[in-house]
Automatic annotation (TrEMBL):
This is DUF4219 domain-containing protein. It comes from Agrocybe pediades. It comes from the Eukaryota.
Length: 205
C-alpha cells in the first residue's frame, strides 16, 4: 500500500456503535477506489470459469480484510463466523445498525424535526445537520418503500405523538412492529391483545 493510500485509509474512522452512516459512505468510497465495491455489493458474482475463480477469491479476501480492519473490535461480533465473506459481512453490519422498522423511522423523523439552530451555529452547519438527519431516514427505508407507506406511517406517527404520556405503555410496543398502518394504530378496531413473539410484538384480533 502506498503512502497516499495509507493516508486515505487513516481518514476512514473505524465503525463504532454510533457512526454507521458516516462509516458506510466512507467505507464504500474506499472499496470503490480499490476496485472492490462491485464484489461487496453483489454486482460482481463469483465466476463459473475455474481460471477466474481464484482472481475473484483473492479480491474477496482483500475486501473482507479491508472491512475487518476498519471495524472496531466490539462491532466484529456482528459478522463472527463470516470473516472471509465480505458480502455477508457488509449485509450483517447493515442489519445490525439499520433496523428498517417503522419505529426506527419514527425516531429518525422525530430527530429531524427536533433540530434547532444553535446560537453559535452557522446556517451552513445547520443545513449539514439537517442533510445528515434526512440521510439517516433514507437509510432506514426498505427497498420496497413507497409513498403510500410513508403516508400511512406519518398518519400513525402523528397519532402516536399526539397521545399523552399515559398511553406510553401502548404506543411503545407499536414501534416494534414490522408494519405500522391505520388498522394497527387507531383505537376502536375490535378487541386486540398483545403477544410477545421472538422478534416483535404483534396484534391479534
Amino acid at each position: 500500500m502506498s503512502t497516499s493510500d495509507n493516508n486515505l485509509v487513516a481518514k476512514v474512522k473505524p465503525l463504532s456503535n454510533s457512526n454507521y452512516t458516516e462509516w458506510c459512505g466512507e467505507m464504500k468510497a474506499w472499496l470503490m477506489r480499490n476496485g472492490l465495491w462491485r464484489l461487496v455489493s453483489g454486482k460482481e458474482p463469483k465466476p463459473s470459469e475455474a481460471k477466474e475463480v481464484e482472481k475473484w477469491e483473492i479480491k474477496s479476501e482483500k475486501a473482507a480484510g479491508e472491512i475487518y480492519l476498519l471495524v472496531e473490535s466490539d462491532q466484529r461480533v456482528h459478522f463472527r463466523g463470516h470473516e472471509e465473506d465480505p458480502i455477508k459481512m457488509w449485509s450483517l453490519l447493515e442489519a445490525a445498525h439499520l433496523s428498517k422498522k417503522p419505529g426506527a423511522r419514527f425516531n429518525a423523523y422525530d430527530d429531524l424535526f427536533s433540530i434547532r439552530k444553535q446560537d453559535d451555529e452557522s446556517l451552513v452547519d445547520l443545513g449539514t445537520r439537517i442533510e445528515k438527519a434526512m440521510q439517516a431516514i433514507q437509510n432506514l427505508r426498505p427497498a420496497d418503500f413507497k409513498i403510500e407507506t410513508l403516508d400511512e406511517e406519518l398518519q400513525c406517527m402523528a397519532l402516536i405523538r399526539a397521545l399523552p404520556e399515559d398511553y406510553r405503555h401502548l404506543t411503545m410496543p407499536l414501534l416494534l412492529l414490522d408494519k405500522l398502518d391505520k388498522r394497527v394504530a387507531e383505537p376502536g378496531q375490535g378487541r386486540r391483545e398483545w403477544i410477545q413473539g421472538e422478534e416483535a410484538i404483534q396484534w391479534r384480533e
